[in-house]
Design goal:
Number of domains of chain B: 2
CATH topology of the largest domain in chain A: Fumarate Reductase Iron-sulfur Protein, Chain B, domain 2
Oligomer: heterodimer
CATH topology of the largest domain in chain B: Rossmann fold
Radius of gyration of chain B: 19 Å
CATH architecture of the largest domain in chain B: 3-Layer(aba) Sandwich
Structural class of chain A: mainly alpha
Strand content of chain A: under 5%
Radius of gyration of chain A: 19 Å
Helix content of chain B: 40-55%
Bound molecules: iron/sulfur cluster
Number of strands of chain B: 8
Structural class of chain B: alpha/beta
Low-confidence stretches of chain A: none
Distance between the termini of chain A: 24 Å
Strand content of chain B: 5-15%
Largest sheet of chain A: none
Shape of chain A: elongated
Number of domains of chain A: 2
CATH superfamily of the largest domain in chain A: Alpha-helical ferredoxin
Largest interface: A-B, 70 and 66 residues
Number of helices of chain B: 14
Helix content of chain A: 40-55%
Order of helices and strands of chain B: EHHEHHEHHEHHEHEHHEHEHH
Order of helices and strands of chain A: HHHHHHHHHH
Strand order of the largest sheet of chain B: 2-1-3-4
Mean pLDDT of chain B: 95
CATH class of the largest domain in chain A: Mainly Alpha
């Protein structure tokens, strides 16, 4: 189970310490302008200490890539955030709602499975009530579950409910 | 002619099936050799699942890709999230033999193998480069006289290091495809900004997502358009269901949200009901009436 990198590896692999705190990233960030993410500060924190994995603002990034496209030091900021999120997740730091989405994927092979309201909408359009995805192919769903088990995904996300 | 398999993902078939219907109509009318990718799963959603565990993300994405490799077809996505997930995973596995080996060891347990023989496409980039604006214009039976706010979304164009498309800051491909149908693409401030939904923000921190959405809707409202056109069911849901949530807080916008497949099908002569525009979360009856039958 390869899993997550260490924070030292992330700092090294993505040149996090090259950050010069110029703030181009936070100036480009919709989640900073409209909400409270400060990505410049988050990058500094990641470069300094392991506590960054507990910072809830890690999960406020929409992965829009504005910052990554514009960083003058060429730091792949989104890749850094995703890598640090995975360290957090492997240490059990997963938001409740995300845990639920992970459960849906493990159960149905879809993060957003069909429900009765939308079966109805499909039929109104003349489509089959179930789409041609894993929803109509139990063997494929079995394969998906097998793969998730092979990756140890249930242990990482805490299979419950 | 290019052979493709249509990857549905989760939100199109399970929340906005009108987009599924419309896409089938468009591919058929344009004479494209296509079929649905039977047995596909969640891409899996990049913001959440790639965040948790990269090996799991690669294993599930690559299973979807191998289903299409077996058919020797490129994968066509109609969602920025599915595109981001599958195109990035495909590229990573093609370029990194160690990751490919690790992923194939998981896949071997279900008798599959990632070869790296096909590409992942996005419907906007696909229509633009494989069919072309001119050929689309020739197929139009009903030019649409609509003022449109085009919303590119993020992962169609970014990260630019893994995309073939041109400009990230000032692209025109999507606008050209919209104008080919007779519409006017109206410019507006922050046009290239995010809808707010991605990265797992909508699912876990809904208020943060909604604040970003409200800001963008405000700019679109000022531009005085007939509708928003996007090419991603996640942006579609964020703007559509988001307007319902905002209306509940006393902030009404009333701007209909339409996927490009639906807009194209309208111009090919289909009605708003044929492609499920009336099945949006918000009431679009004025817009459906405006379009007529
Ligand atoms: S744009 Fe790059 S260099 Fe500037 S503060 Fe952000 S991460 Fe650091
Ligand atoms: S990718 Fe995340 S951190 Fe960067 S600008 Fe977008 S929302 Fe902000």
């Amino acid at each position: 189970m390869a899993g997550a990198p260490s924070i030292e590896e992330v700092i090294e692999d993505f040149n996090v310490l090259k950050c010069m705190q110029c703030g181009v990233c936070s100036g480009s960030c919709p989640s900073g302008r409209q909400a409270s993410l400060n990505v410049r500060r988050l990058v500094r924190k990641i470069g300094r200490d392991h506590a960054a994995i507990c910072d809830e603002s890690l999960w406020m990034c929409t992965t829009c890539y504005n910052c990554q496209e514009r960083c003058p030091r060429g730091i792949a900021i989104v890749d850094v955030i995703l890598a640090v999120r995975s360290i957090a997740a492997h240490e059990g730091l997963i938001l409740e709602r995300h845990r639920h989405v992970a459960y849906l994927l493990q159960e149905h092979g879809h993060a957003v499975p069909i429900d009765d309201t939308h079966k109805e909408k499909r039929m109104q359009l003349g489509l089959n009530s179930l789409p041609s995805t894993v929803h109509s192919h139990p063997d494929d769903l079995k394969d998906v579950k097998h793969l998730l088990a092979s990756c140890g995904f249930g242990e990482i996300t805490g299979r419950k409910e | 002619m290019m052979r493709i398999s249509l990857f549905l993902g989760c939100l199109v078939p399970n929340r906005y099936p009108g987009i599924e219907k419309a896409t089938g109509i468009c591919l058929e009318t344009l004479g494209i050799d296509w079929k649905e990718l039977d047995g596909a799963s969640c891409c899996p959603a990049p913001g959440v699942f790639r965040s948790f565990d990269e090996p799991t993300w690669l294993a599930l994405a690559s299973r979807n890709i191998t289903l299409s490799e077996t058919d020797d077809r490129d994968v066509l996505t109609i969602c920025n999230g599915c595109y981001g997930s599958l195109a990035d995973a495909n590229l990573k596995l093609k370029n990194n033999s160690l990751l490919k080996e690790q992923t194939n060891s998981h896949l071997s347990q279900i008798g599959r193998h990632f070869d790296g023989t096909i590409d992942v496409r996005h419907i906007i980039e696909f229509l633009y480069s494989e069919i072309g604006v001119q050929k689309i214009k020739e197929k139009i039976v009903r030019p649409l006289d609509l003022k449109v706010a085009v919303h590119y979304g993020c992962h169609m164009l970014k990260p630019s290091s893994s995309r073939a498309t041109a400009s990230v800051e000032h692209p025109s491909v999507f606008d050209e495809l919209v104008e080919a149908l007779g519409c006017t693409s109206v410019d507006y401030p922050d046009k290239m900004e995010c809808c707010g939904a991605g990265g797992g923000v909508r699912s876990a921190l809904g208020e943060t997502a909604l604040a970003i959405t409200e800001h963008k809707l405000g700019k679109i409202e000022d531009a005085d358009v007939d509708c928003i056109v996007e090419a991603c069911p996640f942006c579609h849901m964020q703007f559509d269901a988001g307007q319902v949530s905002l209306a509940g807080k006393g902030r009404e916008f009333g701007i209909p949200v339409i996927h490009y497949s639906q807009l194209l099908a309208l111009s090919l002569g289909y009605s708003a009901e044929d492609v499920g525009i009336n099945l949006n979360e918000m009431d679009c009856s004025d817009f459906c009436n405006l379009l007529g039958k």
